[in-house]
Amino acid sequence: MRIRTRRMNIGLMSAAILLSSAGLGLTTASPASAACDVRSGIIGDVAWAKNVCSAKLYRKFVWGAAPDSPCYIFRPGHSHEVERPFRWATFEGMKSC
After folding, report:
1. If pLDDT is split at 50, 70 and 90, which confidence band does 83 have?
2. C-alpha pair distances (Å), 20 with each of 37, 40, 42, 46
3. In terms of pTM, does the model score above 0.70?
């Protein structure tokens, strides 16, 4: 009975991990894009982001109270800048696309 309980707990834990990672999109991400990200920030009305990884990444700028930017290709070492779409928009960071 004890062995069966352990196997059941391991099976449930594995299922929970798979379900949570599927919701986050981790199952389809490549190892390079999962291991690194872009650095980003905002200066005045311009949001910037730079890829500091050695892999090509696809990211978009996420704005609060405004539409997000289109998807940009971030090649290693390259950066992009996007102006604030509306003066009341807030920069919320980057999102994979």
Report:
1. very high
2. 20, 26, 31, 34
3. no
